[in-house]
Amino acid sequence: MGLIGRKTLQSVVCQQEFASLAPLHESGEDKGRLDNDEVEMKNDASLAKVPTIIGVGMHAEVVLSILQAQDPRAAVEVVSHGTMDENAVPAALRPFFVGALHELDNASAERRCFVIGVGDNAKRKAISAEFPHLRYIAAVHPAARISPDAVIGPGTVICAGAVIETKSVIGEHIIVNTGATVNHHADVRDFCHVAPGATLCGKVSLFEGTFIGAGTTVVPNVSVAPWHFAKAGSLVKASTAPIPMYEPLLDNYSTSINDAISSGWISSHGKYIDASEAALREKLGVRHAIVLSNGTVATHCLFLALRHRHPEVTKIYVPNNVYVAAWNCALMEYDQECLEVVKTDEDTWNMSTKEEDLRALERGAAVLVVHNVGNVVNVPRLKRLRPDLVIVEDNCEGIFGKYEGVSSGCSEATLCASLSFFANKSITAGEGGAFLTNDTALYRFIYKKTHQGLTSRRYIHDVLGYNYRMTNLQAALLYDQLQDLDRILGLKRRIFANYCRFLAPALEAGTLKLQASEPETLKADWMFAIRVVGHARDFDHLFAYMRDRGVDVRPMFYPIEEHEHLKGVRRLFDDRGVTEGLSREVVMLPSTPTLPERQQQYIAQTLMGYVGDASGRRSAVAAIALNGTAQDTAMLSSVRAAGQEADACLATAVAVKKDKGQGGDNGGRNEKKVSSPRISAIAA
Q: Hey, how many other C-beta atoms are within 10 angstroms of the C-beta on 50?
């Protein structure tokens, strides 16, 4: 019969005397009271709570030794997570082995309290998720030294010689191994492992699943990201939490930049400028590319090109919910009255390209197409539907996307396009950007404008120009990445595929929704973004939830009216419900190319927890310890009085063990020592 039931939220408060490592002895009065309790529990075996270890590996043997050290007479039992032949169980555990966990019926489970005796953090999490309704207890070795105002969650294992200092909060199903030290005001989240001899200095935070290797030291005030692995003997001196939105992939791309430094060509001349432009032309299939100092100046060049090639244009249609640089660049060349905001597609988050919406656009106007969050607009189709429109593309987020088999920004249907190589783009020059066009005359014009209006005669300039040039150092960094582009894009595809896989339950349930693509387009896998359907709160609430759990996130770009200097830009359609909804519902998730899969899974689970309102399993304890109320005597008293399951579990196990004849004698109670710290269970 399977195990069913509702999980009870439990946290345990350790009240061991901090100054003493020796076992605590009872007073005579206390001995009489506990003896009476023991007798009552023995007479009613159905109320007994038997300490039961889940797992049959070496860590299960460690947990067994801890429970036996807490009370040598306790009737500890062992179950396997899956079906296992008894002969395959290690000899040290075989006398205590009673079968597989899933074979226990409800009655058998009800009389037990459990500790997961598995060393692997991810496996402990999986088991606790599979069996969330079990009553878990902490296993604390009597030779551990724990401050009376420290907080320890259920399922946690504290080994011999471990030290937990004042005001520290130790979450659920954590291992604090032999001789490890957790200094004051630490916050150790669920499923972490602090290995033997490791030291967490004051005010260290470990987010979920972190492994701190043997002998490792984490310096004060450092926050370690979820599911981070710190190897043995290391020094962790910089925070890795929250998981950042993006970290550029730079480790393998220093060859050319070092060569540029050695050559002395570090400014706006040097071989890597020409080399990176040639690589862009080859990779993207465009006639002309000019590398520039950043994506914003490249986007400004779109409007320089538009004014130069089409001086008759007085109306420019712009999309909504895009990064502000797109609008700002238009205003560098045109009055605000020339701009008008088109309708937003609720599914693609781009400008609407439905035929009825395109028909509403003024003839002979220009359109700024932004491939928002990397989702590509089918520009060739748009041009076929409205051949009178002049199209320029802000392709800063859409680089390496495609429409109708052509790289975005490179179609004959578009006048020109801009790229960005900012640090959060798939390839980066730190800053950096590029201007793309298939129009040779336009290329020459923009080249002159971006190179200070130079002529063939040194220091003679014949037009108003700008210093928008990329440096040879930037170009060298860019060049090396372009040579390794297939691998980089493969890593990004993996990130996007993993998120879709991990978020599948919520996607299938309809509580999360992916950005839809237009037909015959291929997204640029830039920043993974997803919509929280029906999210009624502002983004700050979601941001705070994720940040508290060690994950950085970003909102969708806000509607144009949110920017004070852009409030006067007119809308062609009143679709505020859509544009405001997107800025409230869409969240961008960390998208570093080398983001570990386990961290991706954690991010997805955390977001789904928010969506499902499954927040705050630790809140009953964390509110006491982290919000400063651990100093409130009345609060702590009420917590400690909330339940006695953990103490009762070990005490009643003594009676069961005697009934089974597993040791002890009739006079043994008169010699009993309380060798474990007093532990109370908080039931929410």
A: 22
Q: How far apart are CA 152 and CA 640, in angstroms?
A: 12
- Write the secondary structure of 380-449 as one string of H (helix), E (strand) and C (coil): HHHHHHCCCCEEEEECCCCCCCEECCEECCCCCCCCEEEEECCCCCCCCECEEEEEEECCHHHHHHHHHH
Please tell me the distance from the alpha carbon of residue 666 to that of residue 18, in angstroms, as a whole number. 33
Q: Is the pLDDT of residue 116 over 60?
A: yes
Token pair for 148: 């009376």
> Can you give the pLDDT at residue 69?
94
Give every CB contact of residue 458 below 8 A, 6+ residues apart in sequence: none
Distances (CA, A) of 447 to 303, 434, 440, 454: 14, 11, 10, 9
Residue 613 pLDDT grade (very low, low, confident, very high; cuts 50, 70, 90): low
Strand pairing class (163-164; 145-146): parallel
Rounded CA separation 97/105 (Å): 16
Q: What is the average per-residue pLDDT within 198-227?
A: 97
Instruction: Quote the pLDDT of residue 34.
Output: 30
Separation between Cα atoms, residue 168 and residue 275, nearest integer Å: 56
- What does the pLDDT look like over 182-204, one tens digit per residue? 999 999 999 999 999 999 999 99
662: pLDDT strictly greater than 70: no
Query: Which DSSP string do the residues of 504-522 spell out, in sequence order?
Result: HHHHHHTSEEEPP--TTEE
Task: Tell which CATH classification among 2.30.30.30, 3.30.300.30, 3.40.50.300, 3.40.640.10 matches the domain 255-594.
Answer: 3.40.640.10
Q: Are 277 and 454 in contact (CB under 8 A)?
A: no
The CA angle 642-648-653, to the nearest 5 degrees, is 160
Cα–Cα distance measured from residue 153 to residue 160, given in angstroms and rounded to the nearest whole number: 18
Structure tokens at 86: 């008894």
User: Phi-psi region for residue 661, left (φ > 0), alpha (ψ -120 to 50) or beta?
Assistant: left
Q: Reply yes or no on whether the pLDDT at 32 is more than 60.
A: no
Contact 383, 413 (CB under 8 A): yes
Reading the block at residue 455, the tokens are 């002529």
CA dihedral defined by 641, 643, 649, 652, rounded to 10 degrees? 70
What are the DSSP E strand ranges found in 439-553? 512-514, 521-522, 529-532
Q: Under a CB-based contact definition with an 8 Å cutoff, are residues 368 and 319 in contact?
A: yes
Over residues 647-662, mean pLDDT: 41
Taken in order 527, 283, 395, 455, is the CA torsion positive or negative?
positive
* C-alpha distance from residue 606 to each of 6, 136, 599, 612 (Å): 21, 22, 10, 10
Give residue 72's pLDDT: 87
pLDDT at 45 over 50: no
- Degrees to nearest 5, angle at CA 141 with 137 and 147: 85
What average pLDDT does the chain have?
Answer: 85
Q: What is the mean pLDDT of residues 253-279?
A: 96
Burial 299-334 (b: 16+ CB within 10 A, else e): bbbbbbbbeebeeebebbbbbbbbbebbbebbbebb
Rounded to the nearest 5 degrees, what angle is found at the Cα of 664, between the Cα atoms of 661 and 668?
140
Say if residues 564 and 547 touch (Cβ distance below 8 Å). Answer: no
Q: Structure tokens of 404?
A: 């109708």
CA distance 372 to 431: 19
